[in-house]
Amino acid sequence: MSYDFSVSATAVYQEKYIQFLLQNYEDLNQPYPFPVTLSYISSPLLMEGKAILCKNEDGETVGAMGYIHGTGEQDYEDTEVIQLQIVFLHQTRRGSRLLLRAAQFLAQHWDQVQQPPSEIRFWIPNDPSLLRLCSRFANRFTENASLTEFRVSFTSFKAFVLQYNHENYYAEAGGR
Amino acid sequence: MPVRYSICQTDADLARYASFFIKNRTEFSKDYTLPVVLMHMLETLADAKIILIEDIDGQVIGWGKFEYRAPDTIFVDSVIIDKRLRSSRVFLDGFRYLVRYVHEQYPQVNQLSFRALSSQSYVNRLYSKFAIKTEEREGVFELESVYTAPLPNLLSYLGVK
Questions:
Q1: N or C: which end of chain A has fewer CB within 10 A?
Q2: Using alpha carbons only, what angle is made at residue A82 by residues A27 and A48, rounded to the nearest 5 degrees?
Q3: Out of A15, A39, A46, whose CB is closest to B22?
Q4: What are the φ/ψ torsions at residue A111 (nearest 5 degrees)?
């Protein structure tokens, strides 16, 4: 199964992103009250950032991702740091290739932007198999009762995810 | 048509409110772009309560958003009902639900205020049937009016208790 990723450029597309996440709200499994979760999933639309939707071959939306540039501690001036705010795959796609494809898309997407990031940060639920998976390519940084923060240099992230068989999403645009 | 009114209790309910708001946001005003609506929710949701209106299949067909303002007021910030049901009993029954809820849950409250965008003549006409205009002010995009009515008047207007 091949997947189609696209980066939100229009208001219509941004609306699809937020509606997809709201309609799957319970499956997002966020450890925060609704307004906090809403601020995380909205931030790619309200701040310097991007929302990405993923469709399967039948054109159904099966995943969404959002990220922002910069961190709160640095007043978002450290734009070379990327914070993934949400990565959500539809229940039916868990354990499929989609997670790897999504990571490969992000690596290629960030590689072709004007200023590729230096570091990627993300938080994942304290689920043993997810923690094991992420520890293979990123470093645990902090953790609390429900979440663990990982950080990884963009170079390492890219090398890790692109060592596997992948499509070239930006090939025609002259991607590196 | 049977309709269900309830106060949002769970985050899943709030997500349904947000989804309906985003989908129908231009019913308020063409200025309600996606970022405007998201910011509005982020700024106001922590203090707000939402009445969710659902049809018999559990589909959201509208909502009302209100908050308590000390010492004695419930401020009804906004209300939206699916276009096809707007002139039906849905509004009146929801209004009754709200007033009964306020009466039971907020013993210190003795008046309700309602916000209406000036461009929405239908809403202004509706509110002026049971409340008087007590304020006119600059909103984010346009003039807004605030209508106020004493709680006892609303209870008798709606035949509650």
A1: C
A2: 90
A3: A15
A4: -70, -30
Amino acid sitting at position B38: L
Query: pLDDT 10s digit of each residue in chain A, 176 long?
Result: 789 999 988 999 999 999 999 999 999 989 999 999 999 999 999 999 999 999 999 999 999 999 999 999 999 999 999 999 999 999 887 778 899 999 999 999 999 998 999 999 999 999 999 999 999 999 999 999 999 999 999 999 999 999 999 999 997 654 44
CA torsion A122-A128-A130-A132 (nearest 10°) is: 90
**Structural domain boundaries enclosing B104:** 3-157
Best CA proximity match to A82, nearest among A119, A44, A135? A119
Query: What predicted TM-score, i.e. pTM, was given to this entire model?
Result: 0.92
State the complex-level ipTM: 0.91
Residue environment code for A136-174, b if the CB has 16+ CB neighbours within 10 A, otherwise e: ebbeeeeeeeeebbbbbebeebbeebeeeeeeebeeeee
Closest residue on chain B to A45 (Cα): B35
- The count of domains in chain B is 1
- Chain-chain contact of A46 with B11 (C-beta, under 8 angstroms): no
The domain that holds B9 is classified in CATH as 3.40.630.30
Domain boundaries, chain A: 4-173
Q: How far apart are the first and last CA of chain B?
A: 24
How far, in Å, CA of B114 to CA of A160, rounded? 57
Helix (H, G, I), strand (E, B) or coil at B111: strand
Range A4-173 has CATH code 3.40.630.30? yes
CB contact under 8 A, A38 and B35: no
- E strands, A33-158, are 49-55, 61-69, 81-89, 119-125, 139-143, 147-153
